[in-house]
Amino acid sequence: MGRVLAAEHDPYEISPASNPWASHLPALLDLLDGLARNAVNDTNATSLGFLNHLRQIEDRVLAANQGTAAFLERLGDIDKLAAGQEQERQMLDRALHEAIDFGARVRADILASHHALRSISGAIEQMNGELVRIGRISKEIGILSVNASIESARAGDAGLGFSVIAQSIRGLANDTQSITERLRPLVHKMHSEVQANGFEAGRSALDASGSKLADQLTDQGALLSEVAQKMAGMSTSYADLIDVKRQRNAASRKAGEQLEDEIRSALASAQTGDIIRQQIELIIDVIGQMRAIAQTAPDNTTVDVQLGALMESIANSYVMKIQHDVHQGVTGMAAAQPSEDLPRFELF
Amino acid sequence: MADILIVDDSPTVLMSMEDLLRRFGHRAIRANSAEEALSKVAGGLAPKLVITDFHMPGKNGAELIAALRSKGSLRFTPMLVLTTESQRERRNEAKAAGATGWLVKPVDPKQLEAALAQLLPAA
């Protein structure tokens, strides 16, 4: 951007050399030209920078909106899956309660059957014991009747009646013994059958209940397996959702930070407009000083001195690169250093 | 949160600085000239920080700082001068008038944040 001022390039054509305007005005005008160029360049840079920031903001907003739309779409699927999972969970809950109730009923039935069979078996055993006692008693009565017959024979005629009674008693004892003997195998058979067939029947009932229970548990196992698969799918979906959410959160946070930086940069860029205004005001100020010198300086020597002072003031004040180059090109003197070396913030 | 008086004749700079200060958790009180700033201080405003442009119609930034320093309530209040890169000489002038430091326009948000952290550590 710096201009190289050749000696033959003098668009203002002011001479002769004795006139101090001839030696200073072209350089001053070149410096003013540099200032104006700075203003134009800054304007362009500001506009481009501002547009660039706004474009980046727009891109980030669009990206954020797309991410949000995808996230909401994914969230809709998760809602449907969650509703289905809830239905499956309710079905499973009902099936499990049915299984528990059925098992409880089967257990109660089996326990009741065993209890009844045990009670019957006990009664038959007790009955068998009583029959044994009856048999023993009838034998003792038989012996007593024999003894009574012997005693009645010793009594002679007086014992004839008693002998008849003794014989009748022996006959009853024999009958009782006979009935007892016949009953004992029957009771034994009943006891054996209760012991064998009764408990066998209980086992059969248990087997039938167990089979039914097994069938139900098989059905519910299949249902549980299906539910488990859906739950696994649900877990995967939830994991995906959490991952997507985490990614979206991270992306949103990053996008937000970038957006904030862009907005701050855009706001900072807006300040450059004011810098340009001040540069133009400085140009106007320099022109005003030149006009004052032209109007008030009493002679060429004074003009020479004042214009020289003005140039040095500009050189010391304006440190932008282009003015630095122009100043060196015109005067051959080192101007103030370019601004890149200066800090942008300092506490005194 | 601190009240910060921002003085500039440019509406763009005022708007920009106000927004930046708000983002950093502070409240900006705007004045578009040194005279308006002095009037607000005379009305009882006691900002924790003053940030003023240098080049303004009427009193410039250095003159404003000198005037504010003469007020007892703002004698020790930090005051920053906003300058452009081409106004290095003005910084010295501002320093002589009592400025605490300077910021180059356009103000970099991070440097403004750093300046606020140094000047308003408790805010």
From TrEMBL, chain A:
Signal peptide positions on this chain: none
SUPFAM superfamilies xref list: Methyl-accepting chemotaxis protein (MCP) signaling domain (SSF58104)
Pfam families per record: MCPsignal (PF00015)
PROSITE patterns (UniProt xref): CHEMOTAXIS_TRANSDUC_2
Example of a GO MF term: transmembrane signaling receptor activity
Claim: DNA damage is one of the keywords in the record: no
Protein name as catalogued: Methyl-accepting chemotaxis protein (MCP) signalling protein
Organism: Rhodobacter maris
From TrEMBL, chain B:
Modified residue annotations for 4-aspartylphosphate: 53
Pfam families named among the record's database cross-references: Response_reg
Response regulatory domain segment(s): 3-120
Matching InterPro entries: Bact_response_regulator, CheY-like_superfamily, Sig_transdc_resp-reg_receiver
Keywords: Phosphoprotein
Residue ranges the record marks as coiled coil: none
Any one biological process term the GO annotation gives: phosphorelay signal transduction system
Protein name: Two-component system chemotaxis response regulator CheY
Organism of provenance: Rhodobacter maris
Higher taxonomy: Bacteria, Pseudomonadati, Pseudomonadota, Alphaproteobacteria, Rhodobacterales
